Amino acid sequence: MASAPLNELCLATLTLSIVFLTILWYKFTPNIPHDQESRLPPGPRGLPIVGFLPFLRSNLHHQLTELSQHYGPIYKLWLGTKLCIVLNSPSLAKEVVRDQDSIFANRDPPIAGLVGTYGGTDISFSPYGSYWRDMRKLFVREMLSNRNLEVCYSLRKHEVRKTIRNVHTKIGNPIDIGELAFATEMNVIMSMIFGSNFVEEKCRKDGTEFRELVIKFLQVMGKPNISDFFPMLARFDLQGIQKEMAALLKSFESILEPAINEHMKMLMDKSEEIQGNGKKDFMHILLELMEQKNIGKSADLVQIKAILVDIVIGGTDTTITTVEWVMAELLNNPEIMSKVQHELKDVVGMNNIVEESNLSELNYLDAVLKETLRLHPALPLLLPKRPSQSAIVGGYTIPEGTKVLLNVYAIHRDPQVWESPLDFQPERFLNSTNLDYAGNNMKYLPFGSGRRVCAGLPLAEKMLMFILASLLHSFDWKLPEGKKIDLSEGFGLVIKKKERLLAIPTLRLPHSELYQ
Ligand code: HEM
């Protein structure tokens, strides 16, 4: 008996909620003009109000690839009040990142992404325009200039050698490859940003904690958030995602702020240490440029911190995930691993350690890396785009403000584009002249293409090749007894292996001093 009023209450609440949501839906669903609506691409029918949202799965890129088999290379999904259009072919990619790049260079960041980047004041999520252009120029031309990358080689070498020494102490024991790659990449990035002292003091102490933080940051950013699909609900933060992201950003700041402050002080004191040998770390370049531009003081700091989020969070997880996938594919394909090591023996020699000058000669390893990024692109849907005006793509209308996903995962595995697309065959990259990372060939886009192509590409390529060549030249690797490779994927903005990869190293080089 007592449950009857409760049921009535539930029913009333439910009815009211439906009425409320219906009103909101009508009020906030973008008003697409009738002539445009009839020219939208096809797509699955969702439910009223929520659209396709209840049917989304956690491995979104798989699901979107399956949908392209039903609805064709361009289709639409209504996700709450948000219209989302997915592109799944090289010719459609060309229309967007080549023919109409200036319209599609705008981003559609998730709300968690905005919270995690101080309102999108970083490079990745800032809208297309002069602010983004200045920030990107500063990063690409100043921080990642050829000269600066050359000058920083000693830092990269120092960290990679440290990793080799570390593995040497664990010969015969299982090593977590992701953890190893993380420590190396993070130390390199941190020393390039703050100088090597910071790495010794800080990263060493908080290494594991920091890794968890980086992983969590990208997981939270990739979580489906009701606020993104019903923006009018964002203020309620119903899933607590915005709050969680704000807390993660605070933890990130607590690690970086002392170093930023120290640099500011050093710059103000014009200390010898920083002036000296032309070897400026990123922080120094950033602070100097900000000072030259006379941007207001508080704006400076926010911009600096936002750029650091891109480099530290965006740059490291993509790189280490890729190292992990390469090693997993090589352990799964021993004959390919042996070809890589043969090449290392020929190019580097068994009495030498890998130097960055060797990397351009390692054609087979380069092909292995490219093939891995074909099958396992770290960002399989790139970063979402939002056209700044309505456009026609594939003969269909894409209205202004739509979320546009370029499904690189589908393109990279399309049997009409690649022969035996699911097989791991590095040879397919050996004699191809235009399958590079710059996004010139629309069938291969692991770093995106057009104006918003990955800004960290020169550093990413150097680091990936250097870490992999060094690990594979110094050691032989095998799986722990009885273990099989599991190539299934986890969930998040960056697609990682579901299971951590453990592998056992044995010595490969003849002289112990090559491990010092
Ligand atoms: C394996 C390593 C990496 C992969 C696969 C990767 C991939 C990508 C992709 C797919 C995009 C989006 C492109 C688009 O939407 O068209 C991107 C953007 C970006 N990446 Fe990377 N990335 C990697 C490493 C790095 C590193 C090491 C850094 C920095 C040090 C970096 C910094 C950035 C930035 C700043 C953007 C935003 C560019 C913009 O919006 O203008 N990435 N990356």
Features:
Cyt_P450_sf; binds protoporphyrin IX containing FE; Cytochrome P450; Cyt_P450; globular; 516 residues; mainly alpha; 3-stranded antiparallel sheet; 3-stranded mixed sheet
Can you characterise this structure?
This protein is mainly alpha-helical. Helices cover 54% and strands 7% of the residues. It has a three-stranded mixed β-sheet, covered by helices on one side. A hairpin with a 2-residue loop joins β4 (391-393) and β5 (396-398). Protoporphyrin IX containing FE binds at residues 123-124, 136, 310-311, 314-315, 318-319, 322, 378-379, 382-383, 446-449, 452-456, 459-460, 464. Belongs to the cytochrome P450 family. Its cofactor is heme. This is Cytochrome P450.
Helix proportion of residues, in percent?
40-55%
Question: Termini, distance in Å?
Answer: 79 Å
| Arithmetic mean of pLDDT | 87
Tally the beta strands: 8
Shape: globular
**Biggest sheet character:** 3 strands, mixed
- What low-confidence regions span 5 or more consecutive residues with pLDDT below 50? 1-6
Map the helices and strands:
Elements: H1 3-28, H2 34-37, H3 60-71, E1 74-79, E2 82-87, H4 90-99, H5 101-104, H6 111-116, H7 130-143, H8 146-151, H9 153-168, E3 175-176, H10 177-194, H11 196-222, H12 226-229, H13 241-269, H14 272-275, H15 282-293, H16 297-332, H17 334-347, H18 363-375, E4 391-393, E5 396-398, E6 403-406, H19 408-412, H20 457-474, E7 475-478, E8 502-507
Parallel strand pairs: 2-6
Antiparallel strand pairs: 1-2, 3-8, 4-5, 7-8
Helix pairs in contact: 9-10, 9-20, 10-11, 10-16, 11-13, 11-16, 13-15, 16-18, 16-20, 17-18
The structure holds protoporphyrin IX containing FE.
Protoporphyrin IX containing FE (HEM) binds next to helix 16 and helix 20.
